[in-house]
Design brief:
single chain, 6 helices, 50s Ribosomal Protein L5, Chain: A, two-stranded antiparallel ribbon, alpha+beta, 8 strands, 24% strand, 6-stranded antiparallel sheet
Amino acid sequence: MIIKIKTRIKPTEDREKVIKAVRNIFRDAEILIDENNILTAEAKSLKKLKELIRRQAILDAARMVLEKGISGNSTRFVLNKQAAYCGVVNFDRDVHGGIDVKIIAEEGEDIRAIVKDIAPRTKDGKIVEEEEILEDNINRSDDSFLGS
């Protein structure tokens, strides 16, 4: 898996703070900044992103955003730059001011499995396995069929 990160450093922003925002979420990011103040980076680890999503208890919201962003073998989403600077995951709609993140599944990897690893399904706030969800749905179907 490859994680590609891109954001524009605006004239009103401090370059070091933008770098810190990216590294707060992607610790291993290899960052380059071009002459147009476009920051691009590559990372391999989702560890901090996964940790923050769990700590903030936003698994369902994260899964929804990640699933919505799937196209082919990748998913794309935008993180709020100011929140990232504070070490917080906040999905942003502002594609022009945020941190654009693209997670690309490499050969032999499944983007849906990567999304599931980042933000697994939950029930009553607890992570559940797919089998548990299927079993629960079958039991509900049986109950409604029996008139319970």
